[in-house]
Structure formats: structure tokens, C-alpha cells
Amino acid sequence: MQAATLKQNANVSEIRDMIAKEMDFAAWTSWIAPLDFNVVDDVLVLIAQNQFSADYISGVYGALLKNVAAEFGLNVKLVVRGVAAASIANDNNVQSYDAPVVEKTSPVAFDAFISSDENAFALTAAKRVAAGAVSFSPLFIYGPAGCGKSLLAGCIKSESENVILMTGAGFVSEFARALKNRNVFAFKDFCRNCDTFILDDVQSLAGKNATTEEFLQLVLDLRAAGKNVVLTSTVAPNALTGFDRRAQSLLASGLVVDMVAPNANVKHEMLVRAGVKSDIADAIAKRIAGNGHLIAGVVNKIKTYSELMGQDATLDVVEHLLADTLEKFKTPISMVKMMCEKLGVAYDAICGAGRSKSLVLARQIIMVVLKNSTRLSLTEIGNYVGNRDHATVMYALRQIEKMKQTDLVLDAQINQLIAECK
């Protein structure tokens, strides 16, 4: 009896070692190492902590586990700790689930999404999902607030058939309601009875373990059935807080694409499409922070003014209305004062007659930055640093150019200041 026990333990140890050699370290530590290994009657029994882990391991690593077990003349059985198959009862036949009433909105075509080079990949992937089943489910789209993730999700819903679109907060709420009403199985059937399932703001599930586990199982089931899954988030899968590594790896197992905030051209087009005059859009597009939600607020403010006052808003009126929203123009004086603060010198000293080595260097750096970040003439640049003459500015440019060739730190510092002033 003791000999048989020793042999069993040796086999388990050897099996674990062989499986570990066949996998990368991260996958091994995340999925297989936490399992309990036992050998019972020529069967390798692997015990998982929950159904999600069991289903994921079976689907992704089942073939590998089977091959390794066969090397030892064993079959494989994957079970869930504390759950017997006979104890799982699905009473779908006697359950019903009433989906929440969703306010009807106008369909949103992909033409409503203003593309840029940075977001073209995400748009193309979304169109492919809307066209039918894809091989990269789930499609995980992430980016900052106001970059168009929810709009893209709405486009997919409008141009697809048999789609369920839920927010992360909505999924949490509906799952809790199903638990309270004891119709969880019907809720599960509702979520699976679609061709495409879209969850907007998946980060809302963070920290809600039971809901997250149910959702991850939903993703596995939909993907196994050849259905499309689309997820949006403010961060990439590996940056999601409140999700363990196994959940992060599943969410990243399809196609992960990032989106960026609207650039100046996109913001201009958004304003014009919303009815803002082209000349006004030209003037304010670059002065609105890159956020689609903020642009919508700007449009509403301009439209409301025109409706209430009975006249079109001029550029002067718009700048007054949006004084708390538009970014301020960078003037040469503001640039010089900003650089003085960065360089640790007083503005009065830069404009004064001081000739210390550190002060002269700071003054020359400021001249070079103004030359490279503005269209000021050399004479105008000299005026902003204490009425220096044209020749002094020329000398400063030559001196800094020589120093940059051997001082990489100075070169990097100047490039950074130029970028901040542009």
C-alpha cells in the first residue's frame, strides 16, 4: 500500500514537471499550477477552484494535458472543487427573464464615426465584426474617455443583426436582479441568445467577483459557439484592476486595439457636422482638449446661445462663451516665463543686464527655443529677452548649436522645451 502511494506521488510530480516544460511560465503559474493533482484508477484527476477555470483550461490546454497524461498511461478528468455533476440542475424550463426596457435610439451608421489614421484599425475591425463572424473574438477596444469607443459599439449594434449591447454597470445590475429573482439560468440564456454580444466599459466589473466570473464564462461560451464578443474599456486588458491574470489573459486572447482622442482634424469635422460654421470650427478646434464628450458640450453651448438669443454666434461670442473651456493661446511672453521657471531663473534676470555664466546660458536657450517654436524674427526674439539686438541672438544660436553637438543632455532639454512651446 505504501509502495503504491509512493509511486502515485512520484507520477504526480513527474506529470507536473512535464506539463510545466510544455508551457510558458506565465500560463503555467496562472492556470495549471493552482490545480490539485491526483491519480485515481489510471485517471489523472485535476481539481479546479471554479467552473470558469475548469472550462478555460479544458478549452485551451485540454489537448496538452491529454497528451502528457497519455505518456503515463492515464486518462484525464477535470473537475470543480466541491461540485458534483449530479448536483447541478438547470431549471431553464420554469424560469423566465424580462430584459430591461431600453430607450430606443436612432441607428448609428459607421459613417457617423469620423476616422483618423490612429483609429483606422479599430474602425476596420469593428466593421468586420458587424459584417459577420470573425476569428478574433473577443474584440477588445480600449482608449481614454471621449475617444469614440461607445460610438463604435453603437455602430456595430446598428449594422448587425441579433445583437445585445450592455454597459458594464448594466450587466452588474441585471445579474444582481437575476440572483434576487432566482432566474439566473434564464438571464444566462438571454445573454447567449445572440450573434454578437457587446459590453461597453468592461472595467465596471472590477472587484465584483461573482459577476466577473459569470461574464467570463459567457465570453467562453459565446466564443465556443462561434459568436462575436466586443468589449470596450478605458485601459488595456493587462492594466485592468480588480481582474486576476487569468481573466486578463482571456480578455486579451482575441484582438486588442487601442484608440486615441480626436486630433485637430477630427475635432474640426465633428464641429462642422454638428452645425458649427467652418471658420469658427477652424479657430477653436485646436483649442479644445481632445475629448469627444467635451466637443459635444461645446456644440450644445453654441446652439443654445443661437436659439435663445435669436442670432448666430460670432467668433468673439464663441470665445467668450467658451472662455472656461478653450485652451489659452501661448504667447511669446508666456513661453519665456514658462521656460524661466523650468530653467530655474527669474524672468526679470533674463530681461536684465546680468552676465553670469548660468544666466547667459539660460538666456541663449530661451532664444533658441523661441526661434524653433515660433515664427518670430531674430529682432523680435531679442525684444522678448530684454531688448537684445539681432547680432546677440545670432551669436546665441551659434553657441548653442556648438554645445548641442557634445552635450546630449542640453540637446534633449532644448527639444523638450520646444515641444512644450509649440
Question: What would you note in describing this structure?
Answer:
The chain has 422 residues and is an alpha/beta fold. It folds into four domains: 2-84, DnaA, N-terminal domain (GMP Synthetase, Chain A, domain 3), CATH 3.30.300; 110-258, Rossmann fold (3-Layer(aba) Sandwich), CATH 3.40.50; 264-321, no CATH class; 332-421, DnaA protein, C-terminal DNA-binding domain (Chromosomal Replication Initiator Protein Dnaa, Chain: A, Orthogonal Bundle), CATH 1.10.1750.10. 54% of the residues lie in helices and 10% in strands. The chain is built from 19 helices and eight strands. It has helices at residues 2-21, 25-32, 51-71, 120-131, 149-158, 168-181, 184-192, 209-224, 245-251, 264-273, 278-284, 292-309, 315-321, 332-343, 347-351, 357-373, 378-384, 390-404, 408-421, and strands at residues 36-40, 43-48, 75-80, 139-142, 163-167, 196-200, 228-233, 255-258. The strands form two sheets. Strands 5-6-7-4-8 form a five-stranded parallel beta sheet, sandwiched between helices. Helix 4 (120-131) packs parallel to helix 5, helix 10 (264-273) packs antiparallel against helix 11 and helix 16 (357-373) packs across helix 19. Residues 1-10 and 84-94 have low confidence and may be disordered.
Helix content: 40-55%
Can you count the beta strands? 8
Most strands sheet: 5 strands, parallel
Number of domains: 4
CATH architecture of the largest domain: 3-Layer(aba) Sandwich
- Identify the CATH homologous superfamily of the largest domain: P-loop containing nucleotide triphosphate hydrolases
Proportion of residues in extended strands = 5-15%
The CATH class assignment of the largest domain is: Alpha Beta
Low-pLDDT stretches: 1-10, 84-94
Q: What is the first-to-last residue Cα distance?
A: 80 Å
Number of helices in the DSSP assignment:
19
Side-by-side strand order of the widest sheet: 5-6-7-4-8
For this structure, the CATH topology of the largest domain is: Rossmann fold
The outline comes out as flat
Mean pLDDT: 85
Using the CA coordinates, give the radius of gyration.
31 Å
